[in-house]
Amino acid sequence: MIKKIYLIGNPNVGKSVVFSRITGVQVISSNYPGTTVEIAKGYLRLDEQKVEVLDLPGTYSLDPSSGAEEVAVSLLRELPKEDIAVINIVDSTNLERNLLLTLQLIEEGFPVIVCMNMCDDASHRGIHIDIGRLEELLKAPVISTCAVTGAGIKLLIQRVKEARPSLRNKLTHQELWLEIGKIVEQSQRLEHRHHNFREILEDASVRPVTGLLMASGVIYAAFKFVRFIGEGIISHITDPIFLNFYQPVLENLTSHWQEKGFWYHLLIGDLIDGKIDFKQSLGVLTTAPYIEFGMVLPYVVSFYFILSLLEDIGYLPRLAILLDNLLHRLGLHGYAVIPVLLGFGCNVPGILSTRVLESKRERFIAATIISIGVPCVPLQAMIFGLLGKFGGFYVGGVYLVLFSLIIILGIILNRTLSGYSPEFLLEIPPYRFPPLFMLWKKLYFRIKGFLIEALPVVLLGVLFINILLYYKLFDFVTGIFAPVVHGLFGLPKEAVVALSIGFLRKDVAVGMLMPLNLSANQLFISATLLAISFPCIATFVVLAKELGFKGMIKATSLMLFISIIIGSLLHFTILR
Amino acid sequence: MKKISLLQAGENEKIKILEILGGSNLERRLMSMGVYKGKEVVKLSHIGLRGPVVIKSGRSILALGHGVAAKIIVER
């Protein structure tokens, strides 16, 4: 009787896609090793019985070498072997490397069923695998699947029950590789192929000169596209909806409202020149939805579209090779580029994915750098929206300050923290072009996640702020921090409210700055400060979870210290 | 037949792995990724200024940090 089914396999063989297919639970999958850092759980109906299915992080062997691998292997050993079934997912385009784990699983007596995934990609590359022969050689059921399109998944589910332990002698690693060589020779046939365009690109992107050229091109194009798509959605979709449709409706509904009291203040906010101004009114029904849907959401869509595209093609690990050198000086290695890039979307998944890094020291450096120096999309969108009108100079300035800060902070942390930075060791996946619907699915999943998390906080946040403002309860806090904000940072004392709201959500915080009529320089300083200072609550929680209480306190004190230094530095250099 | 470190091998050179220095942990990790004594690999590139070395082993492409590459002794 099977009580649990485990999905296990080498990194980046498509475990998460198979998982989504058999359980219907949507999880993020990308074309780089280490996408899954949390264990996803789902259920599968087997003979009228619900069986739990676990998607484990990728591992090359049963003797783990990183934190995520350790988790995978220890979970696998949790239940007695007769109560589980193990689906070993294998990348058909790289049979040889995958079989080590397969043989180890069989050797240890796990009931294994082998799922030869990405079979379509294999045949494109001229790789033909004799499934029947492989079954005989492994003495375990083997099923050929293509999880992206769903081919073979039904058969896989039907045959899960056939997973049985089979006998195999224990071999040393060296002997295992010899054995694997024999198995591959007997079951795989390679068609001779000339280099195609994809392979030429794959090759060019890992060589120094062509690689750097490609990287600069890709980064530049990515940035341009994010701006282009984001601005396009704002000026062609969201702004027309808000200004031509929502605003008249709202004004009609509230024009009969004679007494502009407490509720009016909460819901609509202040009128600017007798009209609702979505950027300045600060009401729950005016500015709050405008910030989320009219300013932030378009950029969330465009950012995740481009990021997902790069992820699925498999470009990011190649970027890691080129940046290894630089990141080494910050006490990290090339692979840290993945958490940092995810952090640009939202710091929370960025910090979670620092789990792909091996040591505690690396993870502390990466998480601290992300929470201090990497602005999330909502914040960036608001910075574009606010500073954009003063010209690219100011927007670029914010990025320049943050970038220098990351470098300096990294170098200092690397020099002062005890320990060493481990070496880079990463498998580079081939370029893949998954069907577009996979990309849409992932984009939809990420946007839904964003809305579920952001919307309630934004609406309740603005409501809460408005109540505090109405009863003038902020005056107390403003009074305490005014000397710092005014004296050190050169900002009006009302900015205290905005800066402290940063703790709730960064986009709302920048929104609070809009009605203050700050000068370009003041806006520049406060936007930079918001990026550096306190992460939002959600980030705070993962920081504590990932780094422990002590680590979180360390990161936070650093953050406060740096905010004060940078704030005053900018103030005295550009405002004076 | 000459013993050199992986760093010294040329681009696109086919080499055979003789030894992996630097402890059993590294050896085990490389082993599980298919890089072990006696395996023939091709060095694809070396990103300058102490950057990583990229090799092709079987059908896998692997990026090895500069320090790791220095510890892999190969035969040309």
Would you kindly provide a written description of the structure presented here, covering whatever features stand out?
- The complex is a heterodimer of chains A (576) and B (76).
- Chain A is of the alpha/beta class.
- Chain A has 2 domains: 4-190, Rossmann fold; 210-575, no CATH class.
- Chain A has 23 helices and 9 strands.
- Chain A has helices at residues 15-23, 67-76, 95-107, 119-124, 131-138, 153-159, 173-187, 197-204, 208-255, 262-267, 287-313, 316-329, 337-345, 347-352, 360-373, 377-387, 392-416, 436-470, 474-488, 495-501, 506-513, 520-532, 537-575, and strands at residues 4-9, 40-46, 49-55, 84-91, 112-117, 127-129, 142-144, 188-190, 425-428.
- In chain A, the strands form 2 sheets. Chain A has a 6-stranded mixed sheet with strand order 2-3-1-4-5-7, sandwiched between helices. Chain A has a two-stranded antiparallel sheet with strand order 6-8.
- In chain A, helix 3 links the parallel strand 4 (84-91) and strand 5.
- The longest helix of chain A is centred in the middle third of the chain and has 48 residues, at 208-255.
- The radius of gyration of chain A is 27 Å and the shape is elongated.
- With 76 residues, chain B is α+β, with helices and mostly antiparallel strands.
- Chain B has a single domain, classed as Ferrous iron transport protein A (FeoA) (SH3 type barrels, Roll), CATH 2.30.30.90.
- Chain B is 20% helix and 41% strand.
- Chain B is built from 2 helices and 6 strands; from the N terminus they run ββαβββαβ.
- Chain B has helices at 23-32, 66-70, and strands at residues 3-5, 14-20, 40-46, 53-57, 60-64, 72-75.
- A 6-stranded antiparallel sheet of chain B has the order 1-6-2-3-4-5.
- Chain B is globular and about 25 Å long.
- The A-B interface holds A 60-61, 63, 65, 93-94, 96-97, 100, 173-174, 177, 202-203, 206-208, 211, 317, 320-322, 324-325, 328, 333-334, 423-428, 430 and B 11, 25-26, 28-34, 36-39, 44-52, 54, 58-68.
